[in-house]
Structures are given as structure tokens and as C-alpha cells.
């Protein structure tokens, strides 16, 4: 059973986790956090709730979201070829 970074209770709060994610201080967890946002709908919901609480991070998060989605789509396209 896997544990998601965003939607699993326990550990640091989602808002604190999002602050670390935005500052890219989660070097070992950054990839896992990105994957959770690609594959877990509950993680996406928790991410958006936390993001709404931190409007000062919207620009940084927008850049991270765009990069994450581009990478995910490129990876999916390569798998199709």
C-alpha cells in the first residue's frame, strides 16, 4: 500500500508541505509529490485547497504545475510511440 504526500493524514500539514514543495526543499520527495498529483485525485483536491490558502505562491506554483504537466504529457506521448 502506498502513501500519498498530499492526501494521507499525518506528518506535516498540507499547507506546510505545499510551502516546502514551492521552495523545492523537498528534493527526495519532490518527484513523489509530482507523481501523486498526476495519479491521485484526492491529492489534487488537497493540493488545490492548500493552494487557495497561499495566494502569494500562485506564480511559483503555476510554473511548477505547468512544468509537471508538460513532463507528464511528454512521458505519456513517448510511451505511446
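Sequence proposed for the structure above (81 residues):
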Amino acid at each position: 500500500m502506498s502513501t500519498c504526500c498530499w492526501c494521507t493524514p499525518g506528518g506535516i500539514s498540507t499547507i506546510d508541505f505545499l510551502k516546502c514543495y514551492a521552495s523545492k526543499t523537498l528534493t527526495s520527495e519532490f518527484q513523489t509529490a509530482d507523481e501523486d498529483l498526476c495519479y491521485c485525485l484526492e491529492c489534487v483536491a488537497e493540493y488545490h485547497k492548500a493552494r487557495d490558502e497561499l495566494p502569494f505562491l500562485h506564480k511559483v506554483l503555476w510554473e511548477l504545475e505547468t512544468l509537471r504537466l508538460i513532463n507528464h504529457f511528454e512521458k505519456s506521448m513517448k510511451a505511446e510511440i
